[in-house]
């Protein structure tokens, strides 16, 4: 394990098995339809790349990047689009793919924003759900793992942009981020 980790939460093998299972479930649910997978940059990128390879219906990709204003104002729910989708989603079956739902601010905003664009359907798929920190409600249709309130990194998830490329998910040692959350 990376020296900044306290313990491994999900190994590469555990993630691979669960992601493949999610892909099979999504493929069943969308049988006969075409899927537009919307990835939330940057955290969702690794999960999305693995997930879509387990999806057997035709899948198109688009990406959106958002930023929430600093930690103190994050609770205000202010989310800003840094890079919008390349194309419209009207009439499409949209699946939002996220790495983690934490306070819910990001997805609560995005679901409303994308719903207003008139998709045929809109569902949310996340690898991790941390329900203990929720501030805004988010309906999750596909969830990989529910996790406790610990700071996790790896497999796309970062701390100060570090650790995204780790193939497993680990709990970050409090000595790295100075305790707190
Ligand atoms: C992280 C994570 C989710 C969001 C979840 O993204 O990837 O997108 O926060 O938090 P929330 O439920 O409290 O809104 P971040 O803003 O760190 O950007 P990143 O994906 O580029 O790391
Ligand atoms: Mn993110
Ligand atoms: Mg981040």
Automatic annotation (TrEMBL):
Annotated localization: Cytoplasm
Pfam families according to UniProt: Pribosyltran (PF00156)
Protein's name according to its UniProt entry: Hypoxanthine phosphoribosyltransferase
Membership in a protein family: Belongs to the purine/pyrimidine phosphoribosyltransferase family.
InterPro entries: HGPRT, Hxn_phspho_trans, PRTase-like, PRTase_dom
Gene Ontology cellular component annotations, sorted alphabetically: cytosol
Coiled coil spans: none
Pathway(s) this gene product operates in, as recorded in its UniProt entry: Purine metabolism; GMP biosynthesis via salvage pathway; GMP from guanine: step 1/1; Purine metabolism; IMP biosynthesis via salvage pathway; IMP from hypoxanthine: step 1/1
UniProt EC number: 2.4.2.8
Domain Phosphoribosyltransferase: 13-159
Enzyme class: transferase
Main location: cytoplasm
Cofactor(s) required, per the database record: Mg(2+)
A GO biological process held by the record: purine ribonucleoside salvage
Key words, A-Z: Cytoplasm, Glycosyltransferase, Magnesium, Metal-binding, Nucleotide-binding, Purine salvage, Transferase
Function per UniProt: Purine salvage pathway enzyme that catalyzes the transfer of the ribosyl-5-phosphate group from 5-phospho-alpha-D-ribose 1-diphosphate (PRPP) to the N9 position of the 6-oxopurines hypoxanthine and guanine to form the corresponding ribonucleotides IMP (inosine 5'-monophosphate) and GMP (guanosine 5'-monophosphate), with the release of PPi.
Chemical reaction(s) catalysed: IMP + diphosphate = hypoxanthine + 5-phospho-alpha-D-ribose 1-diphosphate; GMP + diphosphate = guanine + 5-phospho-alpha-D-ribose 1-diphosphate
GO MF, one annotated term: hypoxanthine phosphoribosyltransferase activity
Cited CDD domains: PRTases_typeI (cd06223)
């Amino acid at each position: 394990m990376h020296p900044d980790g306290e313990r491994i939460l999900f190994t590469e093998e555990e993630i691979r098995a669960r992601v493949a299972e999610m892909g099979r479930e999504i493929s069943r649910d969308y049988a006969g339809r075409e899927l537009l997978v919307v990835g939330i940059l940057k955290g969702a990128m690794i999960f999305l790349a693995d997930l879509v390879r387990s999806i057997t219906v035709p899948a198109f990709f688009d990406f959106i990047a958002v930023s929430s204003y600093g930690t103190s104002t994050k609770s205000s729910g202010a989310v800003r689009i840094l890079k919008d989708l390349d194309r419209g989603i009207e009439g499409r079956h949209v699946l939002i793919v996220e790495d983690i739902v934490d306070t819910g601010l990001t997805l609560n905003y995005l679901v409303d924003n994308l719903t207003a664009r008139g998709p045929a359907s809109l569902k949310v798929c996340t690898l991790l759900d941390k329900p203990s920190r929720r501030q805004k409600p988010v309906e999750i249709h596909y969830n990989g793992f529910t996790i406790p309130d610990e700071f996790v990194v790896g497999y796309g998830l970062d701390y100060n942009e570090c650790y995204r490329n780790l193939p497993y998910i680990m709990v970050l040692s409090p000595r790295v981020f100075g305790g707190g959350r």
